[in-house]
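writing this on my phone so excuse typos. first protein, seq and then structure
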Amino acid sequence: AAASGGGSMGVGPTARAEHRKALGNEAFKAKEFTQAAVLYTEAIELDGSLHVVYANRAACFLQMREFRKALADCKTCQGMAPDYVKAHFREGMALMELAKEDGSLYADAARAFSKTLDLDPKNAAARSSLPIATAKAQRYAME
């Protein structure tokens, strides 16, 4: 692989999108979630086929408490890459927050965590979140 930098390879929209994604990752690591979301959005505008960027932007939206936007990005990512674990886990996290307003969503959150574990049985975060979502879904169903 060629080093990043000049040359005719690095000028296409996909290369520019990958660069924005990398900058977004740096911003996210620095906990600059709004800036990261802007960079991921720019990457999506350059090349909407990079499923990881939607999952990354969903992580920003979770941190920013923009749960509906996070959920939408998770669904978009899943449509492009159905087995991308992080999209299912982040969907569950968004649904857990949205379920505080609409308890019927706890069951959807449980399904998202279950799907996460189907894809990644060792996922500790999903393993600890699933029983909470399941219990809340059952409690909601009994109300």
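second protein below, same order as before
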Amino acid sequence: MGGVLQNPSYRTVKQIKKGWSSDQKYFVRTIDDKALLIRQTELSAYDQKVSEFNMLKTLTSMGFHTNQPIELIPCKEEETLYMIMSWCHGQDAEIILPTLTNEQHYQLGIKAGQMLRTIHDVNVPAKHQDWQAFYLKKTEYKIKKYLRCDESFDGDTLIINYLQQHQELLNDRPQCFHHGDYHLGNMILTENNDLAIIDFNRHDVGDPWEEFNRLSFSAKISPAFATGQIDGYFAGTPPKLFFQTLAFYFCSNIIGSLPWAIPYGTQEVAFMKRQAADFLQWFEAGTLPDWYLSKS
């Protein structure tokens, strides 16, 4: 354990194993009974972590419920960087959601959508890369990698065709700050029954609608929550173009997911194949997913 974690004011230091992040995460209880989250990462990620720290400062200053950033400590001897934050008290939203009613699911989704809009309203740097060129290059790479891998899923031709035939959907898309991994697994239902958003370590800049690409995970758990997130974000019914563009981003994720899953074993591969099958079922009747509970 590094020097920062051996602070004499820390009564308890417990490593958190949950999640896919390369960061080492620790729950800390201080001798004066404060709860902290400490993220430890490589010093080479300094610029990214400064950006994350500043983003959290901006959001918490606006009353946004997330981890309050406290200190960023670089340790050159360890080639390590520590980010110290407050702890978000509460329960994982994806665990508590099954105990709630569909109406409560929808209302939490509304809140999640409103909070996502708040993130997207944070001022973005004036200079950023051309989104369409960047994303199409990324998607083409995913397609090539998929076609070279040893696994495949039914309906892959439909997905590849959609990606190749609807590239105009990315024309002149605006850009904003992204949370980077916005789904139920990174949401906490607080002790006051409010929603908190955690884990901004994958934050970046891009098309605001691309941020909904993780909604497939939430829709599988609760269509009412996923519907609420969309309605809350748009303060009502979304524009028709939204679902066409969302389908594009879902397709890109799906075609890239199988090559990604292979090194993690057969269970991950099987999970990604089920995700692809779910997607094809959702959009079987067109670009409006069947889990979206339209009020029209």
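The chain has two domains: 4-86, 91-282. thats all i got for now
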